[in-house]
Amino acid sequence: MDWDDLRIFLAVARAESLSGAGRGLKLDAATVGRRIARLEETLGAKLFVKSPQGYALSEAGDRLLPHAERAEQAFAGAEEELSGIAGQLSGQLRIGAPDGCANYLLPQVCARISDANPGLEIQVVALPRVFNLSKREADMAIAVSRPTAGRLTVQKLTDYHLSLAAHRDYLSKSPSIGTKADLRAHRMIGYIPDMIFDKELDYFAETEAEVVGLASNSASVQMHMIQAGAGIGIVHDFAIPFAPGVVRVLADEVRLERSFWLIRHADDRRSERLTRFAEALGQGLRDEVVRLEREAAQSGLAPP
Q1: Which residue among 40, 61, 228, 267 has its CA within the 20 to 30 Å range from the CA of 181?
Q2: Number of neighbouring beta carbons within 10 Å of residue 163
Q3: Domain span at residue 116?
Q4: Is the dihedral of CA 262, 192, 216, 289 positive or negative?
Q5: pLDDT tens for each residue of 222-239
Q6: How many domains does the chain have?
Q7: Domain HTH lysR-type: where (predicted)?
Q8: CB of 152 within 8 A of CB of 264?
């Protein structure tokens, strides 16, 4: 048995299909299938059970999985040791993040990390859902709530704030807003109720608004709707500096606090490379939230 066989085994276990594993490995599905069959013959055990839903690990595959993951960590550690240049990070790292963080925070933070580590390739995957680190969809993920299950390590990154906001053009032609009750006369912008993937994103319990008139599963799309003068919504304070003309509304009555959490696979805690990157990412996010929220506070409020 060699590492290349285990690498293919891990890819199929995570993708649960030959074609999905092949895309990640840049191999055709037939080649992946032959390599798995060869590994099964070498071990004298079936590693997968094929069904209409895909390839699921057999009992023998379940037993092999932790050993393959440890081998993966060992090879990654050797690569880190040999490829580092004067303490710099290198190679490819993928971060999963909710789209608000991915759109308004990570571009600046990752740019600074890249400047300090020219050999590092950072990939940001922005999806409005929770990432599956066990399937290695990402090396680490940022979430808006702390997970309570799975073989994970979790670190709080930073608190952040959200406020009601609207564009000045919308406010100039709409009924005035002095209390939360006045929001009932306005078009509200928010999440699609049945597509809210985390309870921390259910913001409208904090207001007296009754109906969301425009909705999206994306925080950045909601901000674009607000910037277009379509209505009022709850937005990240750190996003307001990117939206000229958007101002906070009822800031003394509606201001939410949430947190970002960094999630890593438990086996990755031994990786110095991932730990160093996580430290740089965390510090960068904390600094950027403080800077942008300060700018948002200085940009002014809607008149009562």
Answers
A1: 228
A2: 23
A3: 91-151+262-283
A4: negative
A5: 999 999 999 999 999 999
A6: 3
A7: 1-58
A8: yes
